[in-house]
Write a structure and sequence with these properties.
Blueprint: H1 2-5, H2 9-17, H3 21-49, H4 57-73, H5 78-88, H6 94-110, H7 113-126, H8 131-156, H9 168-178, H10 186-213, H11 220-233, H12 245-254, H13 261-289, H14 294-299, H15 304-322
Length: 323
Amino acid sequence: MIWWRGPNWHTVGHAFTRVQWEWVVAAIGLNLLSVVARAACWNTTIKQALPEPRPGFILVFSAFCVGLLGNVVIPGRVGEVARVAVLARRMPDRQAAWGRLLGSVVAHRMFDLFPVTALVVWVVIAAGLPHWAITSLVIVLGLSSAVFALTWLAARRHQGSVRTELGTIRNLLLQARIGLSIMSRPVPAVTAGAFQSLGWLFQLLAVWTAMLAFNIHQPITVAGVVLVLMNVATIFPLWPGNVGLLQAAIALPLRSYGIPYGKGFAFAIGLQAIEASVGVGIGLIFLAREGLSIAMLREMPQDAPEMEAAAEEHERARAGVSG
């Protein structure tokens, strides 16, 4: 269907022959900086969620990168659970860590609300958006605001200790509530929000740089439009990367800026490849570092305890070989 109803593939191929690769390298570097800033936001959240000893930034960054890989190669946002599973393996009290880390992931995602809202308002005022995108964003931002309010209230009501006689599910929920602690602590919350906003800024610059790589010379506001549309097209991951759908969502609106559909489609392919190269590249490096595999990554949401046991067995076997 993509080949039959897609763009003029000759135009797409021609666009790739004129790519300026130095801008591609710059875009990859900016995407990497975005990942580092977002991982720093999660690390700040974790510091408020876990008691001493807390994992260092390298461990947090490793788990975050494995999560990025999971979100790229597996539909359904599996990466959010994967990063918790990877980091919980390193904690002395895994049962408590699981719940608190899940709460920290929710809190981390809540810090997207402010930069995304600012980006959407700026883009709507400066450049405009398609009606379908505005409708989707109003719904998503409305739901996100409601969830943010609920998490803020939950964080203010968290209990300092969890009774062991409670059921497993209730214990998990109470630990997750403790993982939201940063939501009720202004200074760490502002710090985390600053890191997350910086990550979005780096991503915006990466999109603008990728546009230059494909000889699309438009104001940075157009890069903001692309960034918003890219996130709208991936809100619901129907298949890995929503490949095809994402390209159409970007290329069609770019026609109103005088960019041919084929060239816009090629740019969208390149942009997704640039972002995926960071997520997949560093994700695979840290996946190997953790002694895990893609197959184990797929099974994390369904069977986390067995996955951890398999990983521990792998580590013991590797240690035996090294000895």
